[in-house]
């Protein structure tokens, strides 16, 4: 085979590969979302008749006597418009991993620390700080003490998770009600991380201790053609763990802060609304 032919084949292969590195998706975004105007990946903004969407829910945390358990949510839905966005075909953010039970220590604190471990994971990523099992163990103890001093219970809803991310970690975070494959991909393409609340037993993770947690949280950090890539803090094998799109989406359900941790059923959990937390620095 001649050198010229080899060069031509290489060029065709290179150009073909380049064309497959991005894809176009359609999503609805709030019309006042700065990303509609500022995101270079936006292909078009069809500002037609606006529709009501539950994205970017405005949340107000009312604190009384240094207690955050009474949290009200402003459910007013923003006006949205359809947007066509170009995103990477595949994406995985470089997020360090450590499980919620460092060194396999499933003590009383770590047993219920999926929310805290997910927040520590996101914080270390955006603050550009290292994370390993020793660091996770230390951070969980400190965060648990802070939450108890500020009136939080064992389990956290997404609204409460946002409050902790802001007040304790000084991160930017918001609740999104538009829980869809495309919206998650879009947020990740902006460099955000996603923390999702879950009916844990719906995940059917083979590494969970049976029957699995009724309520769970984890961090979504990427995606490929048919799976989300996550930091699954509920198992030591959770680094870049993959869940099928439909499995993860179907399992997403928020916690009701009025519930008692010890009296919730699987049926109650799966009846809860779908919400997620978008985190940035």
TrEMBL record:
Compositional bias (Low complexity) = 45-75
Per UniProt, residues of the Peptidase C39-like domain are 102-231
- According to the record, the residues making up region (Disordered) are 45-77
Q: Which region is the signal sequence?
A: 1-21
Write out the coiled-coil annotation as residue ranges: none
The transmembrane segments are none
Query: Could you confirm whether the keyword Signal appears in this record?
Result: yes
Sorted alphabetically, the keyword list is:
Signal
Q: Which Pfam families match?
A: Peptidase_C39_2
Q: Which InterPro entries match?
A: Peptidase_C39-like (IPR039564)
Q: What is this protein called?
A: Peptidase C39-like domain-containing protein
User: What broad taxonomic lineage does this protein's source fall under?
Assistant: Bacteria, Candidatus Buchananiibacteriota
């Amino acid at each position: 085979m001649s050198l010229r032919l080899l060069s031509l084949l290489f060029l065709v292969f290179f150009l073909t590969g380049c064309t497959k590195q991005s894809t176009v998706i359609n999503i609805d975004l709030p019309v006042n979302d700065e990303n509609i105007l500022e995101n270079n990946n936006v292909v078009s903004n069809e500002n037609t008749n606006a529709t009501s969407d539950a994205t970017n829910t405005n949340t107000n945390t009312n604190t009384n006597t240094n207690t955050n358990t009474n949290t009200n949510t402003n459910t007013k839905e923003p006006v949205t418009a359809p947007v066509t966005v170009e995103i990477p075909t595949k994406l995985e953010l470089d997020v360090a991993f450590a499980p919620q039970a460092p060194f396999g220590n499933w003590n009383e604190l770590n047993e219920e620390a999926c929310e805290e471990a997910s927040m520590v994971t996101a914080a270390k990523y955006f603050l550009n700080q290292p994370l390993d099992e020793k660091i996770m163990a230390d951070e969980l103890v400190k965060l648990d003490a802070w939450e108890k001093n500020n009136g939080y219970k064992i389990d956290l809803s997404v609204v409460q998770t946002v409050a902790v991310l802001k007040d304790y970690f000084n991160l930017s975070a918001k609740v999104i009600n538009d829980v869809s494959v495309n919206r998650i991909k879009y947020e990740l393409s902006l460099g955000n991380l996603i923390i999702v609340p879950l009916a844990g037993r719906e995940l059917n993770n083979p590494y969970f201790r049976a029957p699995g947690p009724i309520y769970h949280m984890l961090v979504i950090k990427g995606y490929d053609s048919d799976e989300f890539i996550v930091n699954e803090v509920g198992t030591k094998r959770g680094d870049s763990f993959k869940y099928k799109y439909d499995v993860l989406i179907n399992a997403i359900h928020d916690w009701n802060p009025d519930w008692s941790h010890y009296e919730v059923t699987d049926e109650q959990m799966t009846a809860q609304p779908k919400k997620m937390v978008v985190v940035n620095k």
